[in-house]
Write a structure and sequence with these properties.
The protein is an all-alpha fold. The chain has a single domain (17-137), classed as Four Helix Bundle (Hemerythrin (Met), subunit A), CATH 1.20.120. It is built from five helices and no strands. It has helices spanning 2-8, 17-46, 52-74, 81-110, 113-137. Mean pLDDT is 92; it is low at 1-9.
Amino acid sequence: MCAALVLAGCVSPAPDEASFSDKAAMTAGAAASEVSTVRLTTQLLLADRLQRNYGDVTISASEDALSSVSQTFSVVQPPDKTSDAVRTELEQLLGDAEDAVAAARIANRRDDHPAMRKAVHDLGKSATQLQAAEKKYG
C-alpha cells in the first residue's frame, strides 16, 4: 500500500484538457528540438564538417534528452477521453522520433553513409510531425 502511495505521487497531474494540451505542446516542441539537433549533426557528419567524436557525443546527448522528454510526458495523467487521444497520438510521434534518433546514432557510429542519409530523411519527417503537433496542441 505504501508503494502505491509513493508511486501515485510520481504521476504528473493535468487538471484539465487545456493543461494537458499545454504539456503535450511543450513536449512536442522539446522533442522536435532534439530530433532537429540530431538531423543537423548527421548532415554535418555526412559533409565531413564535424569531428566524428563530437558528433557522437552530440547525438548521444540528444538521444538521452529525447528519452527524458518522452518519459516525463508518459507519466502525465490525461484528465479526459479527448486527452487520451492526444496522449496516444503524441506517444506514437515520440516513439517514432526515438526510433529515428537511434537509427541515426547507429548509422553514424558505423559511418554508414547510405543509412545516415536515410536517417536525415526520417529525422526531418519526425521533426516536421512534432512541430505540427506542437502547433496543434499549443
